[in-house]
Amino acid sequence: MEKSLARYIWKNTRLQQLWILAVVAASMVPYFLSFDLPKQIVNGPIQGDGFEGPGARQTFMHIAYDIPLIGHVEFFQGLQLNRFQMLMALSLVFLALVVLNGLFKFYINTYKGRLGERMLRRIRFELIDRVLRFPPIHFKRVKSAEIATMIKDEVEPMGGFTGDAFVSPALLGGQAITALAFIIVQNFWLGMIAAGIVGVQAIVIPRMRKRLLDLGRQRQLTARELSGRVGEIVDGIGTIHGNDTSNLERADIASRLGRIFSIRYDLYQWKFLVKFINNFLAQVTPFLFYAIGGYLALQGRLDIGQLVAVISAYKDLPGPLKELIDWDQMRQDVQVKYQQVYEQFNVEPLIDSRIQELATAPVGALTSALVITNLSLSDDSGARLVDHVSVEIKPNETVAIVGPNGSGAEAFAEALGRMVWPDSGRITIDGRDLLDLPESITGRRISYASADTFFFHGTLASNLLYGLKHAPMTDPVYDEKEALEYKWHSVEAVKAGNPTLDLNSDWVDYQAAGASGPEDLLKAIRPVLDAVLISQDILDLALRSTVNTDVHVAVSEHVVALRASLRDRLRDEGLDGIVVPFDFDAYNAQATVGENLLFGTMKRPLMTNRRLAAHPYFQQLFRETGLSTDLYAMGLEIAENAVELFHDLPPDHPFFQQLTFMTADDIPTYQALLQKLQSRRFEDATPEERSAIIRLSFAYIEPRHRFGLLTDELMDKIVSARKQFHEHIPADLGELIERYDAERFTPSASLMDNVLFGRIAYQQADASDRIRAIMGELFDALDLYDDVLAIGLEFDVGSGGKRLTMVQRQKLNLARALLKRSDYFIFNRPLSALDQRVQDQITRNIVQDLHEEGQRPSIIWVLSNARLAEMFDRILLFDRGGLAEAGNYPELSEKNGMFKELLS
Questions:
Q1: Among the residues of 133-186, which ranges form H helices?
Q2: Which of 345, 402, 439, 739 lies most in the core, judged by the most C-beta atoms within 10 Å?
Q3: DSSP state of 848
């Protein structure tokens, strides 16, 4: 990076800067003429200078020049105008100059803005590019929130300054010098007064602003540190709650905010003091002009036109001068910011840019051995992790690495995956250093997975396929308008130094995953999902998801058939009572009162429970059917029973998990409400109190809660109200509520609800698991399993994949690595969150079943269970950073050594 911001700007925009400087120089001509014209108007047609006689005329626009070697040349002889005509003509010229000066300013400012935005885009891209090339160890020393803040906020002023870097001093300085020169031409002493004040402003104000720069630097540093600290709080929220340190964090944040407040308050005081002095000096000059200029006019040494022109010219002088002083402050401020950015991002050694060059062609397989020679690794503090290890790993060989925690096995695997760089020694393939190989080779032919996982905010599928998105594989199809827009964006990207890679292209390398295209991709990745035992998790996510009927047509079309198949299967296995189907004419005892009343689903977020309850039609139905009083009485009974049974229990008691209508925090609220409503009469309660009580009844399920509150009469009344609700439902409400229909798919309901078309009986043990298992078999039988998996793969994993469990994240991380079908797989205890039995099963799936003989790549696995080493061709035993033993399983298990101790 350039150390000086001015050099960086000039290096990348010098042609544009030269052009705009030429435009600025051209703009000075009409700017100067606009100062002289008021004097001509006042002295000429207004005061009559040159129009003394009746019918007197003067020449207007006479254009003639004496050119060397040519002589006198007349371009236009001009027009003869009388006094009034001359007044109008000069006024129109003044108006034309105003318009012309305005157009110059418009063009210059627009050009500056575009230039600045391009530079901002360029520098942000370059900084992110450098982040992508930081050495791995550097990320242990920086906070991600601070880096993000610098790229997002702190470089923003640099973009605005780019357009002003050379143009503003030229434009503003030119305007100030032009105005000052004009004043001096009119009267030398008035010009000296103006020059003196300008000199004081130019010298005193910048010196005073040095304090502002120092305060601004402190404000920037403290704000960045605050951002990093907030990021730490968000990332470590579990640690904070687990250690009761939330008040410590509050004290820390309050202290930081106090420091920022103190700096900003001091900054405001100094800023407005400087502004006061600057404004005072600017206002003193007109006073001197009026006093001294007026005196000179009274003495006859200065005519009125000159005085008016001088005052008019000075009126335009403080503006450019003040902006020039502001520009100088901004220059120093931005240079300070740039210096801090330079220090933060000028990291050595950076990864060579050639290592990350785009490669669209397929990369050949790695057929040479992985040779490790005298490898030594240290941690950030300098402690030795691996000490002079030499070993060779052949293609197609499976190697188990075992050793206790801290033995160096994990660090050794990290070095093979290029997660850490060696202190000494080398890792080579075919004689080439692993660190010198392009990432297009190592990122495709070598896969690394550990227990540490990270997923980007997006769908499960986009994160699973992330390891296949190396380069755009196909060009997107654009219509004419989109093509023009893309072309414009590409041109701007080139001008800003950005790549023209199209994000809308298809980046997935299907062939690398063993597929020919998106059509058969699921069939190619399903063995990988099965091997890491995540298929059932994805199936469960799909069952809990709503289905986009425009995309997943096959699933929505086969739902009715699935319902029938499920009923037949349950009947054949004697499980008829496990699911209670929906029936429009009957009350479903396994569903809530609210579900029975609605008999459908709401299109969220357009319709919610609160909006439905507030709808006039719904309220009218409750009044007409008498359900208001019935459900109010039912809600009171629920509240009394819940308060009586649970008010003495601690909030974390497992009984509260059975309450769907009330939480532990609600118990005191309803306890107080019951005391207030001792009369129990519906009329005595306020609308808010009635709503709070009735809401309890909506979530009530008799077989689950067993308070004995649902009588046959009340159930019949609810079914009758349901029929009345759907029979007369208004159009606006009907569009937002989808009624259950046994012969139709319900888009706003989950896939599970669509297939069940009913509710699972609560009395049946493990009913939900049995239903899911049967559904999986039905999906397979109807050739819909892949379609359902596709629905589950659309699940949003959240920030950092936090909507998935740790077990699911580690399985997904392993699947992502396997999907690349690399030549070398390095697994560094990738399944530490799973129990040992599941770890063993997944390891066997990968080593024995997934990679058949002839297609088996080299697998290097740091094992948590030494007994699994029996499946591998060779074992490397690490202890205290060194390679203690090496050999196959029979050899090492028979020796009376360290490996035998790990097996016992």
A1: 144-149, 156-164, 167-186
A2: 402
A3: I
Query: Quick one: pLDDT at residue 293?
Result: 64
Q: Which of 808, 864, 861 is nearest to 836 (CA)?
A: 864
- Residue 17: what residue type? Q
pTM: 0.78
Give the H or E element holding residue 474.
Answer: strand 469-474
Cα separation, 164 vs 326, whole angstroms: 11
pLDDT in tens, 125-154: 888 888 888 888 888 778 787 788 788 877
> Region 855-877: what's the mean pLDDT?
89
pLDDT in tens, 225-277: 887 788 778 877 777 776 677 778 888 888 888 888 888 878 778 777 777 77
At 588-634, the pLDDT tens digits run 999 988 889 889 888 877 777 777 777 888 888 888 888 888 888 88
- As a whole number of angstroms, the longest Cα–Cα distance in the chain is 131
Is residue 581 a contact partner of residue 757, using CB atoms and an 8 Å limit? yes
Nearest to 246 by CA among 233, 258, 255, 259: 233
Contact between 227 and 350 (Cβ < 8 Å): no
Reduced DSSP (H G I as helix, E B as strand, rest coil) percent helix, strand, coil of the chain, to 5: 60, 10, 25
d(CA 842, CA 821): 17
Answer whether 876's CB lies under 8 Å from 857's CB: no
How far apart (Å, rounded) are the C-alpha atoms in residues 701 and 706? 8
- pLDDT in the model for residue 646: 76
**pLDDT at 861 (0 to 100):** 95
Check whether 469 has a pLDDT greater than 80.
Answer: yes
127, 345 in Cβ contact below 8 A? yes
Burial grade of 534 (CB within 10 A; 0-12, 13-18, 19 or more)? buried
Cα distances (Å, whole numbers) of residue 131 to 136, 149, 228, 344: 10, 13, 17, 10
Identify whether the C-beta of residue 720 lies closer than 8 Å to the C-beta of residue 713. Answer: no
Render pLDDT for 286-332 as a digit per residue (tens, 0 to 9). 666 666 666 666 666 666 666 666 666 666 566 676 677 677 777 87
Provide the 8-state DSSP code for 56: -
Residues in contact with 222: Cβ distance below 8 Å, sequence separation at least 6, in sequence order:
256, 259, 260, 263
Between residues 482 and 177, which one has the greater pLDDT? 482
How far is the C-alpha of 416 from the C-alpha of 396, rounded, in Å? 16
d(Cα 465, Cα 802) in Å, to the nearest integer? 18
For residue 686, count CB atoms less than 10 angstroms from its CB and return exposed for 0-12, middle for 13-18, buried for 19 or more.
exposed
Higher pLDDT, 568 or 608: 568
Orientation angle between helical segments 627-646 and 616-625, nearest 10 degrees? 90
CA distance 568 to 576: 9
| Cα separation, 149 vs 143, whole angstroms | 10
Q: Where are the beta strands (DSSP E) in 30-97?
A: 58-60, 63-67, 71-76, 79-81
Using omega within 30 degrees of 0 as the cis cutoff, is the peptide bond preceding 605 cis?
yes
DSSP assignment of 475-507: PPP--HHHHHHHHHHHHHHHHTT-----TTSEE
DSSP string, 678-741: TT--GGGS-HHHHHHHHHHHHT--HHHH------HHHHHHHHHHHHHHHHS--HHHHTTEEEP-
